Every structure is written in structure tokens, then in C-alpha cells.
Amino acid sequence: AAMTEQVSYSGPQRIFSGIQPTGNLHLGNYLGALKKFADLQDAGWEGIYCVVDLHAITMPQPKGALADQTRQIAAAMMAAGLDPDTSTIFVQSSVRAHTELTWIFNCVARMGWLEKMTQFKDKSGKDAERASVGLFDYPVLQAADILVYKATHVPVGEDQKQHLELSRNVAARFNQQYDVPGFFPLPEGLIEGPGARIMSLKDGTKKMSKSDPAETSRINLIDDTDTIAKKIKKAKTDTLGDMPETVEEMAPRPEVANLVGIYAALAGMSDEQVLAEYGGKGFGTFKPALAELAVEKLSPITQKMRQLLDDPAEIDAAMAKGAEKANAVAEPIIEEVRRVVGFWQV
């Protein structure tokens, strides 16, 4: 039940996005998220990017793993080109306003909206009754993550479009319920450019995933150059002959389409341009070229990431600075929210 917003939001344009601190980051995370964040930063967007550790605990975490994994993601963000001086990068739990706004939004959001979320159905499986309330409710936390900064844009993959719609509904309902037209923006998705969906190197119909038991299904950001080259050379293709000449010919060949997509995203080209260069050639020509390109683009990131992880003090200092910047944006907004809701003013 989306509501129409009569008065549009007139504040600054701002991007928000978060990455879960679970498992090893891979090429799909880099091309689908990290590289995009760095490109948006370079294009002059004001960006707020965080490691969403509050979201991570919707699933049980191994003892002591959370802080290390949070550091890994922070290192990857910095290695991929996010600059702590230009963008705001921080750890979600260090800004208390996220959880406070979530409770207020819990009283605005409707059970029916959350029951429609397909991700909850996928993650809770047959036993939804036993899933944690957090797993059911985390889209409301996501709405708070975005709106506590009054962010206007969110770079999202296809799988998160439904959650973005929920954020828009929550914002519109809050504005209406408390009679503050245009108070929160209705955030828009930024789905653009190549690399939006990188698939497994073993199965072109499945997304590249941190949780896939097969190491060869993904390229981890921490992989060394030999490992990257080996995994690409071993990547599954098909027996339908050489490289396709056109995008139409490529359509029924998901594994080949995935490798072409990876090449295009790394090189900043379109699929058409890649096929113009390699169409009709054998995989014996294309795969080594892709391996070389991947090594060239990824090894500086891998090196920088390892360097940062060897000196966690640099990561910690950047995250502390980011938390300070994020709090400076969120605090005045949450103060305004308290006033609008009518809480006791001390």
C-alpha cells in the first residue's frame, strides 16, 4: 500500500549503502558494489557507506568472528578506492541512531509489508516460526539505515529492490502519519552499469556467492595472482563452439555470458565491445586475456587490502573518523525525529 508523496523532499542528494561482514569478499562484491561506490565517489556524489554488523547478527555468528570480518570489509572498501576523507565509511553499530530509528519505524511499518518480503521466505525456509524476529524485521533496519541520513539514492542489486520499496513506503507513511510532508525523502535505486550481477564460475545460472562450498566458483579479493589466473582458466564454458559473435548468440550460453560480463565490467566496456574484439575466437584466446585483465585490475586491490589487514590500526582510525562523520549527520536528524514523534524533550 504505497502512498503518494504530495510535497517532495528538497534536501541534499546523498547515497547510502552497506555491506554485510560475512565471509570472504569476491569479484561479484567488487564489481557489483565496491567498484561502483568508488566510481560514484569519483563522480562527486556525497556517499555514506557502512559495514552492516547489526544486519550480520540476524544469523548466528561464530564466536569472535564478527570484529575480524568487519575489519576485512572495511579494508576492502578502502582498497577498492573509497577515501575516508571524501566519503563517510564506518561500522553500523557505532552509530546508535540506526537502532533508535528502527524502533520508531517498527511502529510505522506494517506486518503485511514485511510478510511479502521474498528474502525472508528464502532465508527462513520451512521453519519461519523459529526464525529470529530480527530476520523478519531487518528490512525495517535497512529503511532506518538509509533514512537516518535522509539518503536520496541507494545503489541496489535486483535482489534488494523489494527492500528499497519498503523503505519508500516507510518514509511516505512516516511523513503522512506525523503530518510532516517531505520530511524524509523517498529513496531511489541506482541500478546502472555493468557488473550488476556476476555469476558463479562453475554454474552460469547461480550468483557468485561467499557461501558456495566450491572455492573455484568465485574469485576472492584476497586471492593472489596465480590463484586468480588458475580459477579463470578453469571456469566452466560450454561445448557450443567458439566465442559468440553477437549478444543474441550469447543469450543461451550463461557461462560464456558471465565471462564476457566480467571482462566488460573490469575493462569498462560493453558486452558488444568485448564480442567485437573476441567474437568467433576460441576460449584458448579469450580466457588468458580475461585472466590477464583480472590480475591487472585486482592485484593492486588485493595488495592494498593485505597491507591494511597487516596494519589494522589504520583501518580502525579510518572507521573511528567515519563514525564521527556519520554521527554528525545522523544526530540532528534523529533529534528532529524525536521532536516530530512527540517524545519528551529533556
Write the layout of secondary structure elements.
Layout: E1 15-19, H1 27-42, E2 47-51, H2 53-56, H3 65-79, E3 88-91, H4 97-106, H5 111-115, H6 118-124, H7 133-147, E4 153-155, H8 161-177, E5 188-190, H9 225-234, H10 247-250, H11 254-267, H12 271-278, H13 283-310, H14 312-341
Parallel strand pairs: 1-2, 2-3, 4-5
Report on the structure:
The structure is a single chain. The protein has 346 residues and is mainly α. It has helices at 27-42, 53-56, 65-79, 97-106, 111-115, 118-124, 133-147, 161-177, 225-234, 247-250, 254-267, 271-278, 283-310, 312-341, and strands at 15-19, 47-51, 88-91, 153-155, 188-190. A 3-stranded parallel beta sheet has the order 1-2-3. A two-stranded parallel ribbon has the order 4-5. Helix 3 packs across helix 14, helix 4 packs across helix 7 (133-147) and helix 9 (225-234) packs antiparallel against helix 13. It is globular and about 70 Å long.
